[in-house]
């Protein structure tokens, strides 16, 4: 037969176990929140990179006669302003623009941006690459 003396402290143990389970659940929720914030910031950086690429490509479409000056080493004022904007918008951000005008790839522009979030180690850079053709304007 069980007596009351053998069950002393069982409520205390049940309470401690329930506090432990509750604490593990709270820690799991905090971890999920941390991952959600990190994913949202990565999505923002990808969106910013896409907008920056669209911005410089749109400028090239307007200034079709000077498209080669937008490529790396071309020295376009608009390109220099874009480089500054990339560096200010993306963390540790850099951008390159390659221009190819051959029979196989007429007036093809490749825009590449790299960035690394402040909390990431060196070597874990993210990259956004887009390629488009700048067609000649019809007169």
Topology of helices and strands:
Blueprint: H1 10-62, H2 77-89, E1 94-100, E2 108-115, E3 126-133
Antiparallel strand pairs: 1-2, 2-3
Helix pairs in contact: 1-2
Question: What would your notes on this structure say?
Answer:
This protein is of the alpha+beta class. The protein has helices at residues 10-62, 77-89, and strands at 94-100, 108-115, 126-133. Strands 1-2-3 form a 3-stranded antiparallel beta sheet, covered by helices on one side. The mean pLDDT is 88.
H/E order of the elements? HHEEE
Kindly report the average pLDDT value.
88
Strand order of the largest sheet: 1-2-3
Distance between the termini: 103 Å
| Strand percentage | 15-25%
Question: What are the key terms here?
Answer:
alpha+beta; single chain; 47% helix; 139 residues
Brief description of this entry?
With 139 residues, the protein is an alpha+beta fold.
């Amino acid at each position: 037969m069980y007596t009351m003396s053998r069950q002393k402290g069982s409520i205390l143990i049940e309470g401690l176990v329930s506090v432990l389970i509750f604490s593990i659940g709270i820690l799991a929720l905090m971890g999920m929140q941390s991952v959600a914030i990190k994913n949202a910031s990565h999505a923002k950086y990808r969106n910013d990179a896409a907008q920056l690429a669209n911005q410089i490509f749109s400028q090239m479409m307007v200034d079709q006669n000077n498209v080669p000056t937008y490529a790396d080493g071309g020295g376009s004022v608009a390109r220099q302003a874009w480089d500054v904007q990339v560096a200010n918008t993306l963390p540790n951000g850099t951008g390159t623009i390659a221009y190819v005008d051959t029979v196989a790839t007429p007036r093809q522009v490749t825009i590449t941006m790299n960035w690394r979030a402040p909390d990431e180690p060196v070597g874990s850079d993210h990259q956004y690459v887009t390629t488009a053709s700048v067609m000649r304007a019809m007169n």
